[in-house]
Amino acid sequence: MIRTFQGIKPTVPKSCFIETTAVVIGDVVMGEECSVWFNAVIRGDVHYIRLGERTNVQDLCMLHVTHDTHPLIIGNDVTIGHNVVLHGCAIHDRVLVGMGAIIMDGAVIGEDSVVGAGALVVEGTVVPPKSLILGSPAKVKRPVTEKELAWIKESAGNYVRYARQYMGEPAKKTGFEL
Question: What is the tens place of the pLDDT at every residue in 74-128?
Fold first, then answer.
């Protein structure tokens, strides 16, 4: 469902897939070929949310903002795994956020990074590019490997294909296949 809030309607290109049980509200601008899956909520009611191209928001995610202080900005080719909470943070390009992770206000995740499943990224944390972060509170464990970087790209491409299938289109190649 795409819902207007206080006269502001989300901007969702036709190439995006919003599953019928998902809710996108208010000041949300999505890039081309994004997908929002079952029971996810993207709530741009008290600040803005921006999603880059080919970003996928998987089942049961909650994306929100903090009034006047922390918008939510997500780059291109980002995978947001099942049941993730993102609140007023910035996620750069080509990041995979593992299932059940929580990323709080003012946190910044550098490009080409992996946030492990169940990680808690506390308020104001800045993660350098190409980092694997794990734990609660999350800490950088090591650099991302080339194999993991390929996996990040593959995940984004897979979700573009899945969305096309749900929209009844042929599953064309995305350029991220291995």
Answer: 999 999 999 999 999 999 999 999 999 999 999 999 999 999 999 999 999 999 9
Can you tell me the distance from the alpha carbon of 162 to that of 97, in angstroms, rounded to the nearest whole number? 18
Nearest to 76 by CA among 59, 101, 56: 56
The topology under which CATH files domain 2-166 is UDP N-Acetylglucosamine Acyltransferase; domain 1 (2.160.10)
Question: Is 28 in contact with 45 (CB distance < 8 Å)?
Answer: no
Whole-model pTM?
0.92
**114-115 and 131-135 beta bridge pairing:** parallel
Quick count: other Cβ atoms within 10 Å of Cβ 119?
22
**Alpha carbons within 13 A on the beta-carbon side of 26:** 17
- Per the DSSP assignment, residues forming a β-bridge with 17 are 35
Looking up tokens 């809030």 gives: 5
